[in-house]
Design brief:
This protein is an alpha+beta fold. Helix content is about 40%, strand content about 25%. It has 15 helices and twelve strands. The chain starts with a strand and ends with a strand. Bound molecules: thymidine-5'-triphosphate and magnesium ion.
Length: about 350
Amino acid sequence: RAILHVDMDAFFASVEQARRPELRGLPVVVGGPRGGRGVVSTCSYEARARGVRSAMPIGQAERLCPRGVFLPPDFKTYSAVHERLIELLRGFTDQVEVASIDEAYLDVTGSRRLFGPPRTIARRIQEQVYAEHGLTCSIGIGTTKLLAKVAAGLNKPAGIGELGEADVGGRLRELPVGALHGIGPVTEEHLGALGITTVGMLQDVPFAVLAAAFGRGAHGLRQLALGRSLAPVTSRRPPPKSVGRETTFADDTNDVELLRAALLGLADRAVSDLRRHGLAARAVTLKIRYNTFHTVGRRRTLPRPAAATPVVYRALAELLDDLDVGVRWVRLVGVNLADLT
Ligand code: TTP
Ligand code: MG
């Protein structure tokens, strides 16, 4: 398997710098508010050079970095960028697992014939992310998610790195146990008390010692140290909140029969999307764009959720009858189904 782990660099701070280029190169701290009791969400690498870190009280960050640019978080913007980044990644494989607001795993095993070896894919992702968003990311390549994630962490910021099976007995051994995703600060301290600080030590310690200290968790820890998380990349996408279809006519029309026929086709395709997701809709919206580009939407709530074309079409046809479509010329019709269950 070829798995990529993509992690954005200083994500929130980089989004701020990308939309306000005058902030590039400056220590930017997102969090706050300044003088308040909040904490740092993240900060640019320039601020990290002065010791500022995520989750640090804002007052401490101000003392370390008095000239920092302190900004309140704008989650709406970050999550919009996140959505677009995930779409970009889905251009390389449909196996995309969203791991957090700024991280994803990609199984590119099946993408190599189309896009080339994993390193080439990683480079193309970095180029495209930078071209479209002005942001950098770090990408790890591995045969498991675990190795890919460690490799990304070792190559921050803006790098590409690879860890394979051969590195499990090599480079991986030198790393602190905390570098393994799944070993948090508590486990790290617990291991430290046993004198186990590196991945190599965790590989070598007699199993009985681990079992005595961690019971049934011992096996999982050993597997982590051996890079053997076999968890697949799971690309379960959240179910859609609405489905829609629309069409623009080659020539504007005021022919009501033609509009009805178009709506029937759109309803049928939207409803088959619904059924593919195992969903039914209660809200049916008709969209009409006139040749003047004036656009109207008319919505109807069905008495009960439906996933049948005739039911949806009937609602659309009634909504259509209430508009002056026989008189005015129409450029586009659309169907949207929402309130899904
Ligand atoms: P991270 O990927 O952990 O951090 P980062 O992207 O800012 O920096 P790095 O280059 O080291 O990857 O987290 C992603 C975003 O999640 C981060 O930009 C802000 C948010 N976040 C918090 O709000 N609080 C936190 O404690 C952490 C760790 C992250
Ligand atoms: Mg990040």
